[in-house]
Design a protein that fits this description.
The chain is of the alpha/beta class and 328 residues long. The chain is 38% helix and 18% strand. It binds ligand PBG.
Length: 328
């Protein structure tokens, strides 16, 4: 041989499965996953979301069975979103804090049936708003401070059902501090806040908006959700949320914002969550259905990359599939 390789040969640590597993730096675990679920009014319902193969809108009875199955697979955390009929929507999202509304009643039942399971809820107006926006529309604009008042009523009504974590997903200014104070003043000091800290105005949310029929009726969400071009702004948002008492900082979407996940991981000590959103899920499913990629392997690589970027917690529609595939 006319040349000599350096003594270090990194391939030695890849030579067998045992050694590869021994030196593996990042591991995924079902304990780190939160499974988003879509709740329908009524009974006996299970309707697939067309743009999200394998994901269903479920009525309470079918959702209870689904949660039971997931718990057996090791999934113990769920983020539950309501599908609200058009006739129940109005300007001020009043159903979001109506104690008789099916969503709030269902949450209480779910917590009663599964007291040890972690239930997260979404605090934002869009599923209940006739404008399809996350905030209150006044003179064609989203009014920040009037929105806080509604978010507060919503968060309290959700907290009363016994849920564990609220997820303010609206990107209004000051919401974390406002909700933390309100929850504490009303005796809900134990309810956690997973703040959607760096939530981008993304094109990846459209299958979710199909699932909930919650697309904005006019305009877009760019005056509240962040510009995909911005990284430093995520630090500003994270500093505010941390100071206002958030328990988790979330980045959303996940796949195309891995740098932002890493940025928050390196600059904050709070747990970092990442929302692997609907469009990210649908792309994998669509390409798999075409036979262009191996969907299962891509899913594994994708979830691992989110973890490797620094996320502690991943909200993902793949949760159940991942748990079924990896169950030993
Ligand atoms: C509501 C909300 C959205 C998502 C989670 N909470 C939609 C939006 O902001 O338009 C998106 C989740 C997904 O795409 O999977 N504020």
């Amino acid at each position: 041989m006319s040349f000599r390789l350096n003594h270090a040969r990194p391939r030695r640590n890849r030579k067998s499965q045992v050694i590869r597993s021994m030196v593996e730096e990042t591991t995924l675990d079902t304990n780190d996953l939160i499974f988003p679920l879509f709740l329908l009014e009524g009974t006996g319902k299970k309707i697939e979301v067309e743009s999200m193969p394998g994901i269903y809108r479920l009525s309470l009875d079918t959702m209870l069975r689904e949660i039971e199955e997931c718990v057996k697979l090791g999934i113990n955390a769920f983020d539950i979103f309501p599908v609200v009929d058009e006739k129940h929507k109005d300007k001020i999202a009043s159903k979001s804090y109506d104690r008789n509304f099916f969503y709030l009643r269902a949450l209480a039942t779910i917590k009663k049936e599964f007291p040890d399971v972690c239930i997260m809820t979404d605090v934002a107006m869009d599923p209940y708003s006739s404008d399809g926006h996350d905030g209150l529309v006044k003179d064609g604009k989203i009014d920040n401070d009037l929105t806080l008042d509604i978010l507060g009523k919503m968060a309290l009504a959700q907290a009363e059902t016994g849920i564990d974590i609220i997820g303010p997903s609206d990107m209004m200014d000051g919401r974390v501090g406002y909700l933390r104070t309100l929850l504490d003043d009303n005796g809900f000091t134990e309810v956690s806040i997973m703040s959607y800290t760096a939530k981008y105005a993304s094109a990846f949310y459209s299958p979710f908006r199909d699932a909930l029929d919650s697309a904005p009726k006019f305009g877009d969400k760019k005056t509240y959700q962040m510009n995909p071009a911005n990284r430093r702004e995520a630090l500003i948002e994270a500093s505010l949320d941390a100071a206002e008492g958030a328990d988790f900082l979330m980045v959303k979407p996940a796949m195309v914002y891995l740098d932002v996940i890493r940025l928050l991981r390196d600059n904050f000590n709070l747990p970092i969550a990442a929302y692997n959103v609907s469009g990210e899920y649908s792309m994998v499913k669509a390409a798999h259905a075409k036979g262009w990629i191996d969907g299962e392997r891509v899913m594994m690589e994708l979830l691992l990359s989110i973890k490797r970027a620094g996320a502690d917690v991943i909200l993902t529609y793949f949760a159940k599939e991942y748990a079924s595939l990896t169950r030993s």
